[in-house]
Amino acid sequence: MTTPQHICIAGGGTAGWMTAAALANRLPHSHYRITLVESAQIGTVGVGESTIPHIRQFNSALGITEDEFIAATSATCKLGIEFTDWGKVGESYIHPFGELGKPLAGIEFHHLWQAASLQGLDVPIESFSVAAVAARQRKFSPPHASREHLLSTYTYAYHLDASAYARFLRDYAEQRQVIRVEAQIREVKRDHEGGPITALSLDNGEQISADWFIDCTGFRSLLIGDYSQAEFIDWSEWLKTNRAVVLPCEKDGPSRPYTKAMARDAGWQWQIPLQHRIGNGYVYCSDYISDEEAEHTLRSTLPGEALADVRFLDFKAGCRKQLWVQNCVAIGLSAGFLEPLESTSIFLIQMGIAKFLEHLPGTHNDAARNQYNRELTEQYQVIRDFIILHYYLTQRHDTPFWRDCQAMTLPDSLTELILAFRDSGLVDKKQYGLWPAVCIGQHLHPKQVDSRVAAIPPQQLIGMLNQLKSDIAAQVATLPNMDDYLSSLVAQTPLQKSGMRAGGQV
Fold this sequence. Notes:
Number of strands: 22
Active site: 78
CATH architecture of the domain at 5-48 and 161-237 and 317-382: 3-Layer(bba) Sandwich
CATH superfamily of the domain at 5-48 and 161-237 and 317-382: FAD/NAD(P)-binding domain
Protein name: Tryptophan halogenase
Binding site for FAD: 12-15, 333
Largest sheet: 7 strands, mixed
Helix content: 25-40%
Structural class: alpha+beta
Strand content: 15-25%
Binding site for 7-chloro-L-tryptophan: 78
Pfam families: Trp_halogenase (PF04820)
Number of helices: 14
Oligomer: single chain
Shape: globular
CATH topology of the domain at 5-48 and 161-237 and 317-382: FAD/NAD(P)-binding domain
């Protein structure tokens, strides 16, 4: 009988317990056993999370139903992100989840909108997104099952309590034979320098040997950084923010089915609405503002009464050159950090887990490691470029921070994408996010109208778009308010149904 391979996960929190839950779900117990080492003495970053729609695929793959997930994590549904004061002060736009309008004969909708706007249509492009229109009205319902229906043209994610999600997944994983060890790591052992990790020595005297080690130790990067010496690629020349001050507050009324990202003098401020509170944070660059000024800005703009003391976080944008070294794989913040502007943190955890599972049959060979490192690094870079785009496209000149963002030299990869959109509205299918919503929202319009649109008479085109706008408004009017949807969902789902416990800290 084959001896099961041992996978040791270093660190808990969202990354550790997502990894443990996914591996326990996907890997046969006869072939693999899983241990997770964490210490309650070491805090997690978890300040509340805004996610993108891929989290629904992750939960579904684990057999987690939406009702039990929402009940356990105090989650609300999310249709997109509202960006306020990013293009010009006083303006806002929504980056929605789903489609903008409807394509026509293979012509992407933003080309149709651009041509109609030049011919006299005076309607914001977000008016043609079901997700954006519903978000503005605080309405929500899952998309329609029929792809022919207008209410099928969007998708959604969640705002969630990250600590509660980690607790939820811990229970899930432990019920599936994952062993949790409460301890701190004192030493990472190898047979020789530069060789694979053989064991972790813990402060409780225990030593854990394993075939695989997953580094989920967060910014400490205890395994991949300190011991594997994986080089960190610094991206702070483009993503200048390096600090955040966070503070939860009371709710200010009905929940919004979108995240707010409000540009400030030296960065931006988030508001993430959960069922029981609002998560708030100011992400800023310490070269342009002091901690005291940042805290004052955050406190003075809270939508409700503060519920805790402020916390400050340090970070640096970047990514490990190698996320998989020997038998050690970094997942989560130990692999890299991109600020939460586009809510990609949990998505990148998912990507790391999914690719590790894909390549695990390749055992310890170089080809599997090289492909994993290439694919994950590319994903980090694609998202990096999309986040930089928001800063670079600003038309603000009112503070040194925003003037410097406008003046920075871009990565070549992003320069090419911007030129392609500016010249003719071209969008690479591999690009992250809904580029037309962000580009047009921040006043980057294609110089040329797609030649295929010229065959449509102007009044016919404008009439089509006005009718689509009316149809979307009529369909959104039939949707319930999000709080009503959540109340009905949670009321039907006693938490104990799933065997998950509430409360406690990870």
